[in-house]
Amino acid sequence: MAELWDGLREAIRLILSGDSYLRDVAFRTIVVSGSATLFAMAAGVPLGYWLARGRFRGRTLLLSAVNTGMGMPPVVVGLVVWLMLVRSGPLGGLDLIYTQRAMVIAQFIIAVPLVVGFTAAAMQALPEHLPDLLAVLGAGRLRTLWLLSREANLGLLAAIMAGFGAVVSEVGASMTVGGNIQGSTRVLTTAIVTETSRGQNDRAIGLGIVLLAMAFAVNLVLTLVQQRRLR
Amino acid sequence: MEVRFQDVRFLRGARCILEVPSLKFAQGRVTALLGPNGAGKSTILRLIAALERPTAGTVWLDGASASPARPTRAKVAFAFQDAVFITGTVRSNLDLALRLRDLPGEERATRIAAVAEACGIAPLLDRNAHGLSGGESQRANLARALCLQAPLTLLDEPLAGLDGPARQQLLRELPSLLRTFAATTILVTHDRDEALRLADDLVVLIEGRVRAAGVKRDVFRSPPDAETAEFLGYSVVSSLEDGLAIAPGALRIGEGDVTFDLTVEAVADLGARRELSGWIAGTRVALPLDDGAAVPGVGSVMLVSAPRTAVVRW
Predict the structure, then answer these.
(1) Of the ranges A78-82, A124-128, A206-210, which is most confident?
(2) I need a labelling partner for B101 at 20 to 30 A (CA). Which of A69, A134, B63, B270 fits?
């Protein structure tokens, strides 16, 4: 219990002192996980719409695969991405391994099923004839997707929260494909692992509290937007 | 706008939903697609609006095949059976429809004001569209389709979900609304009374096939088969030597052009009038019983008749 209090004190000290290490790691965490979530939204929303509204053979199978993917272990994703990007791997020539871009790719793969699944559920909850109505009125595909996304905004905000929450808190994939290189690929979760392994438990707990506070702040903003729209 | 179906087939999986070798919806007329649930009526509207593609054949809209292309869609207005709205006011929903048709702001405002007045939704314009009652929703749904003033207006069960008085009122108002805002109209209904009141032409569709099509009066007076006649409200007496059907409301007590023996089943007092029900050769029929007439005994046989023009034989 004493370690927890020490951790809390350390977190407050790190934040108030404007610790450059914390600033650097926290900023990188936001950039990497934020980018992965944004890319996942860009790919996942249209895919979710397609899965929700499309009429094609194998749709249910695909939806089941997406739902399974929502629980995909990050470390497995990290391993697969590592095997692809490592120098001897099929995409080794891209020279992405142990870079932030590799971490974004891995986190993108973790977030996409969540965004697709949440989007599909949100789109399926919309009135059945709404896409038809927009089509007859002359809305093109992009405009239809935009208007439907606005209608399903509560579900889509939940998709962002789930996607961001999953990637900002994962450690396995980031560690495997990023390598936890200080000043380059170290993010809050991998920094926590490093501090714990060094026996710096109070610092690890401090970073953990910062991570939690950051995730809470992002989700608070999204929840406020979501609930305002609900009213 | 003239709409023509040419050798159209529509399959869902292996199941044939619609088979229409030839069908024409005349320009400037109101045509009712009449048929029981599952007959393929809404599918016809969806094919015209290019929301579905025919498995075979072509749907022609004024000589151009129906397609999702913007110029073709711009000629069509569609009021779906379920009144669906985007989040916002009734006005913003109507405005979106007109914006998607690239109409300038001033024109949009003028059209919204005109259609809202005509459809009786002017006081609802600034209300949340998702908070409307069933009747208000249907009116707003109709107004959204009519404000487009499209060459072709498609209405899928425009009176669905409306209760008695609201339905009757809209039924009275619809013909004048269609005259003002719609050019050619095709409406789907499963209600014979609705079809006969609203339409110039009738198309009877049963199990995906057109059984009768033409001017309302002709279709109603000469149903081609027992099933169509039954759907049009005829009493079909199929157990007689020749199949025959008696038009709704045509039977009277006593001698006439075509006479039948009626076995009395019951007399119902409906308040304003009395109704005699019974059986003609195994077919149940009902006819009005005059106020002064004696009440016949249950099981007794009496003579009833119908004018020759109200009896169809095959």
Answers:
(1) A78-82
(2) B63
Nearest CA in chain B to A143: B100
How far apart, in whole angstroms, are the C-alpha atoms of residue B299 and residue B314? 30
Q: pLDDT higher for B95 or A21? A: B95
Q: Which two tokens stand for residue B184?
A: 């050619």
Whether the CB-CB separation of B1 and B152 falls below 8 Å is answered with yes
B311 pairs with which residues across the strands?
B246
Closest by Cα among A55, A61, A105 to A83: A105
Say if CB B281 and CB B239 are below 8 A apart: yes
> Do residues B32 and B217 lie in contact, with contact meaning Cβ atoms separated by under 8 Å?
no
Cβ-contact A188, A107 below 8 angstroms? no
Q: Tell whether B49 is within 8 A of chain A (Cβ).
A: yes
For residue range B160-182, what is the model confidence (pLDDT) as tens digits?
877 778 888 888 989 999 998 98
Tell me which of A15-29, A84-98, B85-99, B211-225 is least confident. Answer: A15-29
Helix, strand, coil in percent for chain B, rounding step 5: 30, 35, 35
pLDDT score, position B297: 83
Query: In the predicted model, is pLDDT for residue A3 greater than 80?
Result: no
Here the contacts of B133-140 (C-beta below 8 Å, separation 24 or greater) are: B134/B161, B134/B162, B134/B163, B134/B166, B135/B162, B135/B163, B135/B166, B135/B170, B137/B83, B137/B85, B138/B83, B138/B162, B138/B170, B139/B170, B140/B83, B140/B85, B140/B90, B140/B93, B140/B94
Q: Please give the Cα distance from A218 to A170 (Å, whole number).
A: 16
Global pTM value: 0.81
Write out pLDDT tens, residues A182-196.
999 999 999 999 999
Q: Do B84 and A151 touch (CB under 8 A)?
A: no
CA distance B1 to chain A (A): 17
ipTM over 0.85: no
Residue numbers of A between 107 and 136 with CB closer than 8 Å to B? 127-130, 132-136
Q: Which residue has the tokens 């005259």?
A: B179
* A141 near B CB under 8 A: no
Q: Looking at the complex, does the CB of residue A147 fall below 8 Å from at least one CB of chain B?
A: yes
